[in-house]
Amino acid sequence: MEYGLYSREDLKKEYEKVLKEYESLKSKGLKLDMSRGKPCSSQLDLGEELFSNISGKDCIVDNFDIRNYGLLEGIGPCRKLMADVLGVKPSQVFVGGNASLSLMYGVLTVAYVNGLRGCMPWGKLDGFKFLCPAPGYDRHFAMSGDFGAELVTIPMTDEGPDMDAVEEAVKDPAVKGIWCVPKYSNPTGVIYSDAVIERFAALKPAAEDFVIMWDNAYLVHEFRGDYKPFPDIISLQEKMGGTAAIYEFFSTSKITLPGAGVSCVAASEDDLKGISAHWGYQTISYDKINQLRHVKYLKSREHMLEIMKKHAEIIRPKFDIFVKSFEDELEGLGIASWTNPEGGYFMSFDSMPGCAKRIVSLMKEAGIVLTGAGATYPHGIDPEDKNIRIAPTMPPEEDIRLAAGAMCICVKLASLEKLLEK
Amino acid sequence: MEYGLYSREDLKKEYEKVLKEYESLKSKGLKLDMSRGKPCSSQLDLGEELFSNISGKDCIVDNFDIRNYGLLEGIGPCRKLMADVLGVKPSQVFVGGNASLSLMYGVLTVAYVNGLRGCMPWGKLDGFKFLCPAPGYDRHFAMSGDFGAELVTIPMTDEGPDMDAVEEAVKDPAVKGIWCVPKYSNPTGVIYSDAVIERFAALKPAAEDFVIMWDNAYLVHEFRGDYKPFPDIISLQEKMGGTAAIYEFFSTSKITLPGAGVSCVAASEDDLKGISAHWGYQTISYDKINQLRHVKYLKSREHMLEIMKKHAEIIRPKFDIFVKSFEDELEGLGIASWTNPEGGYFMSFDSMPGCAKRIVSLMKEAGIVLTGAGATYPHGIDPEDKNIRIAPTMPPEEDIRLAAGAMCICVKLASLEKLLEK
């Protein structure tokens, strides 16, 4: 029965019962960090080959000794591999260092300092705005905030950002860009529908230098079922006639080794040149030896997908534990809903309005760190205080079982507190 | 006898002779690139161990699995190693990715976008100026130029930048920084004198957010004689009472592998925090696995210096060839002077005024690419058109011999053309 239909008397009884469960939970003295989307150590072990799969003798690539300076855009075979994965041309790919975040920051820096497509640099404007589909990725929002952008929330739907809201917002020439995680969106796990992607590809913003920051971080990260083909927005834009500057990001951080992987950005050749011309001032070249390690290890798009199957075997059971716990403990109580994605690194959990912060704080008291409530919204403020991001990949299964059980207790407790205070 | 004392008749004869030598040089069809300070392949071979010296099992460092995300400032042992080399505290060191240029760009970006020490961001000012001791490093000057800084030339002396000029210039609050390569300065090879370093350490610029960009790229790069101890400017500043924000840069690009090395920046703890707080928006962490590879390979400051002795054995003969050629062919002609440094990657060559561009172009026609004339000055403009940077490390010795001989011919030819045109 839904809590909402309980008599006040029964609510109180239930509260006493759940409170006892919570006290017993606290007494276990747990210490778990589930705040970030980190791979677990058996996932990291999959990449062991990367520690020794090349030697100096392998380093002549296209007649160039890649141990030396040079090749700003990356080594040819790595550009080709990434192009195959993204469905673009190698000439549209710039391979960077270990973090796609740095490439995103690099695009915003050029836009802010030098200007894109010959437009006025954003830093010279009175102000500018950035669209943030929420719930979304906290690091995205924080990055544009660090450049002083006004962050405009766009509601997320089951098919991606609310495109009516996007199309309306981009009529304002002060709106300079939008953050997108188009496949297995962080944290909801939503895959943008074809209709949404087509509307992005056809978008004609008032600002000539409007950027679509297309962070395809989870493009190959299915953990249930086979790889789901995903349209390439860059060639689609040519067909649909949109005019936004699309920068698509990808990295191997959750395929090989986080922090020692390879990242890339894809864009039309003109938009790529506009960026790399300035990136040449900040580095002579990225780590091409690590690029070669990755080419040897990943081999091809097909082989990359095989490696992802191994990751899936490791992390799927952890998602299953959370889903099953929620179904067993919370379904029918009318106090929560959650996503059950088929890929990516997160589940999104919605509590009753006004309960998310309390749940995260109850969990923390019980020794389990979740991503801060509100983190998935611009400026860390969830207007309804209900969304929580769950990142179940890193702890071992026995800990996940404890955490999932603990979360159900905390959700119940916070909901009962809320219902009793009315 | 000096060319200047020749009769016009004799000058013409000499010109005919040298022109024939040049024609014969051109007929050799050489193809040599001496434009950049790149290590040669036998130097790169020294770092072979880096390709396989660690495995996943070594990756638990200070109880942290460094294969995963985290540790923005770098792994402890690498911060300690770099601190030992620079003579600072580990807490004053931030270890970055493969390029110290990126860290320099990162400092300028924070200054431009967010502001340093609570000051107005440079991007919000009507304009700002940067001091460029010249001849100096083209990439430094170009980087500050890319941020829109007005580049102010400061003359270089045999002891470092002209400190009277520096102290005068920093009275202007619009002057926001200076580029320094304090040991084996690029391209002159000058080591800043203790007096110059002390004046930097005591500098009290009008701008509170004035940065000394102390690029100690060649700190351990002696190729003649033993390592020459060099004062740590960060602790010296505490003693001398200067107020500038000092950021010191270093990398292993020319110790291990260019483009696959490890870079770092050192600063007072406050100035470091002011920067890294914003760097946290652009990356979660740098490549910590590569940092560990470097710790295992370099071991200690002492062992690093032993490795540098091996580099010295390889590159010293190449410098010797140039010095001997110039002495044999040009000494006494009154048309050129050159530096003979004991470390670093460059020699600086001064022709007669108005001849540098012509020499570089004659060399190019003969198939030898030098760094562009003027590159060592802000905006690439050498007011006297006389300075040429020589980068002899990359080509094999037999090619260096050809290039040095060729350069003497081209210098003579350009000088004779100049003298005959009067």
Task: Describe it.
- Two copies of one chain form a homodimer.
- Chain A is an alpha/beta fold.
- Chain A has two domains: 3-43 and 305-421, Aspartate Aminotransferase, domain 1; 51-300, Type I PLP-dependent aspartate aminotransferase-like (Major domain) (Aspartate Aminotransferase, domain 2, 3-Layer(aba) Sandwich), CATH 3.40.640.
- Chain A has helices at residues 8-27, 41-45, 76-86, 100-113, 138-146, 163-169, 194-201, 233-240, 269-279, 288-298, 301-329, 356-365, 397-421, and strands spanning 32-34, 60-61, 64-65, 93-95, 129-134, 150-157, 160-161, 175-180, 211-215, 245-251, 263-266, 336-338, 347-351, 368-370, 387-390.
- In chain A, strand 6 (150-157) and strand 7 (160-161) form a beta hairpin.
- The longest helix of chain A is centred in the last third of the chain and has 29 residues, at 301-329.
- Chain A is globular, with a radius of gyration of 23 Å.
- The two termini of chain A are 19 Å apart.
- The mean pLDDT of chain A is 97.
- Chains A and B meet through helix 2, helix 4, helix 5 and helix 10 of A and helix 2, helix 4, helix 5 and helix 10 of B.
